[in-house]
Design brief:
Elements lengths: L1 H31 L13 E5 L5 E5 H11 L1 H4 L23 H4 L4 H10 L20 H15 L8 H11 L1 H4 L23 H4 L4 H14 L15 H16 L12
Antiparallel strand pairs: 1-2
Helix pairs in contact: 2-6, 5-6, 7-11, 10-11
The structure holds heme C (2 copies).
Length: about 260
Amino acid sequence: MRYAERRRVRLLLASVAFLLTCGFLGVELARGEGSGAPAGSDPPGIVTLRTNGSGMVQADAANGRRLYLTYCVVCHGATGKGDGPAAAMLDPKPRPLTDDRLMSTRSDAWLFRAVTKGGAGIPGASVHMGAWEEALSEKERWDLVAHLRVLHRPTQDRGNVETGRALYGTYCWNCHGREGKGNGPFVHLFVPPSRDFTSAERMARLSDQDLFNAISRGGVATLVSPYMPAWGGVFSDQQLWSLVRFLRLLQGGTEQPTAGQPAK
Ligand code: HEC
Ligand code: HEC
């Protein structure tokens, strides 16, 4: 009897020790996750944009907003809806810069060129859209692009590109491919195969919130594909937004938008 009891206690102690070790290991593993990645968000108002190719620039959306309200508001309107006081006289009218579907088809480089060269830089666009190359510095024009991004993606300031890059490079690339082209080594195992995150046309159909939901809730919940895992319980919201930021950066490298026609 006594022997059996002692045995039970010893077993109990052993399992407690085992569980403690597991818990400790778990915490350690979780801590090691994404190690080397800076934590938290970008500073408020700072947006990482992609110049042509793989170049990147950190632009100041708060300064961009100030410039926008000085130089662009008269036609595009304070909130970017295309309802500035001069809009009534324009034909074609400025398109709503708040239209996420439309604006997401524009790469960062495209918007920069539109602001720099004006109507001449946008195929088929209006001459009323001026060139700001002379009036504004290169930095100021990138700051404006950052503000344009915030106008159609209010969640632009959540997460951090570098955190997203580190997480993606560990947990996502094997299916989605290093560059997000949907050609990771596991891809042939799944139907449908992973999509191309660099396709602006396809990515433009997804809002930031759509991407967040797909990553957080996974393919079963969002009816995308049963093979897309749900990462909601694994990563913090901060980390999930960081992944969204990184996916947008992959997309931002796409050179040309599909539809360049100005609104009538
Ligand atoms: C005199 C009126 C006017 C002013 C001022 C103006 N725009 Fe425009 N803008 C237009 C018109 C008209 C278009 C062409 C229709 C369209 O694409 O919305 C246009 C187009 C654009 C586009 C292209 C959108 C696309 O389809 O890719 C961007 C970006 C843009 N403007 C940003 C700016 C910014 C930033 C400023 C301030 C530095 C500015 N605009 C000032 C009238 C103006
Ligand atoms: C086991 C393979 C696998 C892994 C790992 C994986 N995915 Fe997916 N993912 C898929 C498949 C398959 C789909 C469905 C096809 C598609 O839309 O790409 C998908 C879909 C998505 C979508 C929705 C795309 C759309 O068009 O609606 C997003 C966003 C996404 N994955 C992001 C991620 C991120 C971020 C990670 C890493 C944290 C990740 N995935 C890890 C396989 C995977």
